[in-house]
Amino acid sequence: MIKFLPLGGAGEIGANSYYINIGGTGIVLDCGMHPLKIGLEALPKFDLITDLPVDYVLISHAHQDHLSALPFLVQRHPYIKIITTPQTRGIAELTLHNSISILSEQLTSEEKELMNSKHLKIYSHEEIDLLIQSIEYKSYNESFIINGYDHQSKYNIFCNFRDAGHILGSASIFIEHNGQTILYSGDIRLSDQELIPGAKITPMKINTLIMETTYGNTDASLIPLWKDESLRLASAINSVLISGGSILIPIFSLGKMQEIIAVIWNLMQKNKIIQTDIYSGGISGKISRVYDYNRYSVNRIDPSFEINSIPQKSIYEIIQPEEFFKQPCIVLAPSGMMVEGTASFNFAKHWLKNKTSAIFTVGYMEQNTPGYIISISKRGDMIKLNSFSEEIEVQCSIQRFRFPSHSNREELLEIVTKLSPKNIILIHGETKSIDYMGSAILKKFKDVKLFFAKLGSQIILD
User: Which parts of 71-123 are beta strand (E)?
Assistant: First the structure.
């Protein structure tokens, strides 16, 4: 018997973490923090597994919503074994330090006391270093065996990581036990990006598919081909630069930054975009070095291409944001959703008032973020970036571009077709996305047993 218990990421995108009990061995799949919450509210519901065996945590990739709660899981279960791909381990060494620094700044003294009452504390950077050293890593398609401390079955659990085509090191996780097969998709994309090629799904029949649904409610016709969208971005950038304006692109430091700066630079080299200064900053440069270091050890569209060979100026060299408007330029600034207090949020307040400049969004936006508010606005609108801010008149140009690192709904159905699962558990998506995917799956696959993951609600698989 296999038991599946969502600890987070059920009916939403954030704090993704799922517990599976296989023959007495407890496995946690991913361990993320919710990017828009702080303190205990940002963590998966670890209390749900307090009295259960917790032996391993397998991490699909290094995004905050899949990795950053790992130190707190280790505090609760200090003997847990951590396994990732080598690339995820390399990125985790950077992002876990960054997450702890941000969280330490965000928490009030009351929130820290509340965490202490739950026997949780903010990790020191020295403790993060020790945690990183404890991570075991396995390459793509390298089979490994796991067994719990209180293992009750004579059968081994066989696992491997499979390239998920999402970001560097991202993996779908394959698990086999006593003839039962499970695939946890993680965040997955079947189509090529600028740097990372799409995942290749080998047709086979499995028992259970645990599948993300991020773009499950988005018609594929609304998501242009990567090349077409790149050319549309180039045209829009040139239009702003010719008018003497500058472009602000809010961007996630991991994955989206590397892909978009590569798009811009490649188009500049082909004379599709006017040569101009590119500004970037934050942790993205260090992450790009990990991308460059691993360019021959994983699948890449062009392994010879080095991200950090692109000439870039630091956003932190600029004392006043108005300096960005003295000469036309492109500014890639964290965070991707313009969360309050980040560089993109602070810069946006100045961009919104500049008539010749523009803000271009290139990724997913949660609806209650400043980035979403800006992305759906147009010139002349009066907007408030949060409930406490003053109204700002939108005077700059705002355009939305789609460069997804997740599969569209047609590709998700393709995954189901190739794997012919008996059971499907839908996760990692807003309610509309999960509902649409559920309906589409039941129409096309009559014999599938479908489950909608619910926080704290156990699913028993046969």
Answer: 81-84
